[in-house]
Amino acid sequence: MTSSLADVASSNATLRAFLHGLPGVDRVGADQRAATLGTRSIKTTAKAAAIDLAIRMVDLTTLEGADTPGKVRAMCAKAVHPDPGDPSVPKVAAVCVYPDLVAQAVESLGDSGVKVASVATAFPSGRSSLDVKVADTALAVAAGAAEIDMVIDRGAFLAGDYLKVFEEITAIKAACGEAHLKVILETGELATYDNVRRASWLAMMAGGDFIKTSTGKVQPAATPSVTLIMLEAVRDFLAATGRKVGVKPAGGIRTTKDAIKMLVLVNETAGEDWLHPDWFRLGASTLLNDLLMQRQKMATGRYAGSDYFTLD
Amino acid sequence: MSKTEAAARLAVRKTYKLYIGGAFPRSESGRSYPVTSSKGEFLANASKASRKDARDAVSAARKAFGGWSGATAYNRGQILYRIAEMLEGRRAQFVAELAEAGTKKAGDVVDAAIDRLVWYAGWSDKITSVAGAANPVAGPYFNISSPEPTGVVAVIAPDEPLLGLVSVIAPVIVTGNTCVVVASERAPLPSITLAEVLATSDLPGGVVNVLTGSVKEIAPWLAAHMDVNAVDLTGVADEDLAITCEQAAAENLKRVLRPAAADWYADPGLKRMTAFLETKTVWHPTGV
């Protein structure tokens, strides 16, 4: 299949033929499968392990117009020591900021091991020319971003211009150089689960290292069903090509329960190999505090209060 | 075909559930327990709340705190008065439920509960003047002490199904606190009917949350909860349990109210209101 995949992107017609040739998604079945896996009960030591793993997978994110260097500094401090009162809490995977704040984040994080991710390509709408998007990416990479979160051109995708989306991802991948490329599909705007599957394959074939559900600016964002479909896509893509791609649900994951449901989905769909921060991330901001509160509840036996944790 | 009597109508019995965040959910645990009348007859099954219901109730109370404490005293007083109005309208229902629970002179008890609400409603815009002060200071400053609500209060209600319940809830919420109430374990049904009154009185959802079930099971979790700011142990009859709760409450320095046995018909005084107020003192420069 590897050789045939190479030819797929030769024209819009071949891409369409391939993407529309993917098996359709059974919407009811996918929703039900995701809901069933969401009922798994994870308790005691397994829960403690899941909470720590989830903390290690968090991409601590701030993507507001009102972001300041001070806020980014504070967030970086939190990324390295999520709970200053408890040194046993692991570091998060990365912080995610706008390109102009990458330099600040890189400086604040130093050699802590927490990576800096940056959104790029006219985030969140993606409505700009390819030149601007490449320049946006280059800006973030030059400032020291280790990971780039790009958005696909949903307008082109929905209009059926798959080749444009493909070439855009390829161009951004080239602009990334060493940096990892996460491709945001914005599933909330793709309308159907079939489109989610097609966009996942398109992004992986174009060279994305991660596929990410959402920008966090559109509802619905990272629903369990959509994450399930994307996890199936990376599993099938590995089988077809031998290349492993990561998944990042982002947006709407606010509670520990939501996060643990995601981990169950990963384990049961893509497999245990994906249960690592290199292959699965949780894009979130408020989630981290809930994880810390649950962690404290498990340690002390009493319910934690948000007064005792930093505001985001 | 034989002649048949018109079938007797089947009574539609009420399902007694919890009251959390303005909604009436069943216990997360799915448990319930039978409630009997004072003569031992089965009345209904009440939900048996778990610690997770208590946790949900605390988050609902926390969520409601900003809006409720920020509402004007005038508005809070109006809403308390509205609760009294709604209670008056359901007088017959409460009299019947209290009689089943074994309360003597149930009519008088309901009247006293309504009057108690009206009494506390009147205090909403006066307590600040009584509990606050303009302090004389040796400097060019106004120095003003004003009472502020404490936050989320966990209330273990006494075994006095309506009057006792109203007498512990009203003073907590009139000053702007929100609360989680654990109803009388023996006679929980009037508390859920009271929740129906609260739900139709313009009281924002989450200001009062009512749990029914085992006090021994729920109270320690509420007393230890780091997001609860005060506990009212009025209804904890067991000495050991009260001590356990007090110790748990010490962890985040909760305010604890553990009064001696009360006569619910007596003039309540200001104690219950001031117990859940904190004094904020502000120095403000005078224009020189």
TrEMBL record, chain A:
GO terms for cellular component: cytoplasm. Pfam families: DeoC (PF01791). The keyword Thylakoid does not apply. It catalyses: 2-deoxy-D-ribose 5-phosphate = D-glyceraldehyde 3-phosphate + acetaldehyde. GO terms for molecular function: deoxyribose-phosphate aldolase activity. Keywords: Lyase, Schiff base. GO terms for biological process: carbohydrate catabolic process; deoxyribonucleotide catabolic process. Its EC number is 4.1.2.4. It comes from the Bacteria. Pathway: Carbohydrate degradation; 2-deoxy-D-ribose 1-phosphate degradation; D-glyceraldehyde 3-phosphate and acetaldehyde from 2-deoxy-alpha-D-ribose 1-phosphate: step 2/2. Belongs to the DeoC/FbaB aldolase family. DeoC type 2 subfamily. This is Deoxyribose-phosphate aldolase. It comes from Planobispora takensis.
From TrEMBL, chain B:
It comes from the Bacteria. Keywords: Oxidoreductase. GO terms for molecular function: oxidoreductase activity. Residues 35-256 form the Aldehyde dehydrogenase domain. Transmembrane segments: none annotated. This is Aldehyde dehydrogenase. It comes from Planobispora takensis.
